[in-house]
Each structure stands twice: as structure tokens, then as C-alpha cells.
């Protein structure tokens, strides 16, 4: 019988497992495909008042998995990366300490509003500068890194919001993993290192609660985006996709190329997220990670026939063992 296990290590090499395991009441790791950093949170009982835990800014390394493998399909401990502590809360009764950490130090400057602009540059250069300013590096997929940017403004937005907007504009994963700002094509099935992710099969027998839904999008079949034609002194429109019921993006872009890029990204995102599926796995697989391709088996011909991609993985460790809740985005098969 496999036994759920967790390993927490401080940045100085201190292994917290012996101190944490007897006190651990709950641990949750939330991994997402984009927009914000992954988040680790855990709660420790402190009835004796003797617990001393790392303060903000300390780094924790996490591994989750199984101490004893009872089935070939179950992995051992899987490295889930490092996280920076940005919140420590004490509460009671019963006395306990709750710690929140993220996969990048986003607590301060990354969330501060600022105004600036870039001209005659590339997307890779913009993201590289932002990552460097926050003590990290950027890993941008090659076709995205070379995208030309004539002019772009970050007006009254935090770097976090600006990077999120860029991710939506280019239909890309835009997130931090272990001090690296990743910018990869969404739905491309690539890991943080850029190598292809292996797909996986998930069956109805592996869990309990599930929910399937359709993102109707009000039956839109195309997308419109506006841009400002400086020479003519007027707004113009570019359209992609079908023409029966196009939806219009709210922003006005600086150039025709930027407007077309945004419209194509929105159309691609609509197609990739036409369906949503959530599922609670009774036995967690720590090897699951966002943007992994998933084949569902055991539901219906419609559900099983959709091309699914992992959008979010929430892994919890506690009295119930190691369990997961996953969210998948789906496109037509």
C-alpha cells in the first residue's frame, strides 16, 4: 500500500520533514498554466507554542509523492520546485501557523503599478527585462521571442498584470516557475524546460466528483479587433474566423499587426477552451502538471472524444492522504 509523503527543505539545506510531519494538518500546492505563480500553502498545529518557522523571503523546496510504491503506475517523490515564503499567519484556538509561498517573489515590486513604454523591440527583450528586474530570467519560446513590437505601453499596471495581458495577447502561458518567467505557446504541451510533456490517460474509476461544462461563448464564431490608423486619423477593424457572429475585443491596438495578433490569439483561446472538465482524483499523481495532454476514458463519447489539456492541478496532503483536483480545458477532437 503506498504511503503519501512530503518533503520540505529550507534554502540553507535544512530538512523540515521531521519537524513538519507531526504538526502538518494541511498542505495544498496549486499549479496553474499561466497568469500567476504556483502557490504552496500549509498549516501546522502549534498548541505547545514551540514552533519556529521561516519568515518572509525564505525559500522552500517541495517534493510530493509516495514513500512506498504499491503499484507500478505510482511515482515516488516528485520534485515540485522551490517557493518563496511571502505570508506567515498565526491563529487560534487551536493554535496554528499558516504559511503561504509562491514560485517567485511576487509579494512586492511585481505587484506595484507603474507606467512605461517600449518601442522598436521584441517580445523576448521586453520579457527578459521584466524578469531581470525581479531577480529572475525569462524563458520565451523562440517564435514568440522574436515577435516584433513597434510600440507598447504599460500604463498604470503592475508587471504582473502587464505580463498576464501579454500572455492573453499572444495566447501564451505566462507564469513563473522556480525563478524563471515562462512564456510558452498555450496548449503546446511543453514543460518549463521547453521539452514535450508526455500525455496521460485518466479514467472514471480513478476518482469521484466530476463536472463537465461548455463555454458557449454566445455562439460567436469569429473575433474582431480595432486599431488606430494614425495616418488616416481613424479606427479600423481586422476580423478573423467566421462572420456569422463575431465578438469584438474591447482594446484598441496601436497597429494593424497587433490587432490581428490579438484577434487570432482570442480565436485560438476560444477554440482551445470550448469545454471545461473538473475532476477529483482519489489517489494523486504528483507527475501531473499544467499543459499536459490528457485523454479521458469512461464517461461518454462526447467527453472522451475531446482533446483535453490540463489547466490547473491542485494537490492536497493531509489526513486523507494525497489527493488531487484537476481542471482541464477542451477543444474539438
Automatic annotation (TrEMBL):
Domain of life where this protein originates: Bacteria
Protein name, as recorded: Phage late control D family protein
Organism lineage string: Bacteria, Pseudomonadati, Pseudomonadota, Alphaproteobacteria, Sphingomonadales
Amino acid at each position: 500500500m503506498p504511503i503519501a509523503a512530503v518533503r520540505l527543505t529550507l534554502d540553507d539545506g535544512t530538512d523540515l520533514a521531521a519537524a513538519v510531519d507531526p504538526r502538518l494538518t494541511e498542505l495544498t500546492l496549486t499549479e496553474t498554466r499561466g497568469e500567476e505563480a504556483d502557490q504552496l500553502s500549509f498549516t501546522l498545529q502549534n498548541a505547545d507554542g514551540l514552533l519556529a518557522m521561516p519568515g518572509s523571503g525564505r525559500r522552500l523546496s517541495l517534493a510530493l509523492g509516495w514513500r512506498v510504491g504499491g503499484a507500478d503506475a505510482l511515482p515516488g517523490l516528485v520534485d515540485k520546485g522551490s517557493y518563496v515564503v511571502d505570508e506567515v499567519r498565526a491563529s487560534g484556538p487551536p493554535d496554528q501557523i499558516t504559511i503561504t509561498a509562491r514560485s517567485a517573489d511576487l509579494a512586492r515590486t511585481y505587484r506595484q503599478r507603474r507606467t512605461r513604454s517600449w518601442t522598436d523591440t521584441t517580445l523576448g527583450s521586453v520579457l527578459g527585462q521584466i524578469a531581470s528586474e525581479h531577480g529572475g530570467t525569462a524563458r520565451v519560446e523562440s517564435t514568440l521571442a522574436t515577435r516584433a513590437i513597434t510600440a507598447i505601453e504599460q500604463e498604470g499596471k503592475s508587471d504582473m498584470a502587464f505580463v498576464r495581458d501579454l500572455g492573453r495577447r499572444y495566447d501564451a502561458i505566462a507564469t513563473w516557475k522556480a525563478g524563471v518567467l515562462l512564456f510558452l505557446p498555450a496548449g503546446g504541451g511543453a514543460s518549463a524546460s521547453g521539452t514535450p510533456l508526455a500525455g496521460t490517460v485518466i479514467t472514471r474509476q480513478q476518482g469521484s466528483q466530476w463536472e463537465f461544462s461548455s463555454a458557449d461563448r454566445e455562439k460567436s464564431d469569429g473575433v474582431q479587433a480595432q486599431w488606430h490608423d494614425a495616418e488616416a486619423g481613424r479606427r479600423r477593424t481586422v476580423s478573423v474566423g467566421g462572420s456569422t457572429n463575431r465578438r469584438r475585443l474591447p482594446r484598441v491596438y496601436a497597429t494593424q499587426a497587433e490587432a490581428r495578433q490579438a484577434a487570432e490569439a482570442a480565436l485560438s483561446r476560444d477554440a482551445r477552451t470550448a469545454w471545461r472538465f473538473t475532476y477529483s482524483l482519489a489517489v494523486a499523481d504528483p507527475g501531473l502538471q499544467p499543459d499536459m495532454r490528457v485523454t479521458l476514458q469512461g464517461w461518454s463519447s462526447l467527453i472522451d472524444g475531446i482533446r483535453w489539456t490540463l489547466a490547473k492541478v491542485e494537490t492536497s496532503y493531509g489526513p486523507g492522504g494525497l489527493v488531487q483536483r484537476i481542471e482541464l480545458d477542451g477543444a474539438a477532437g
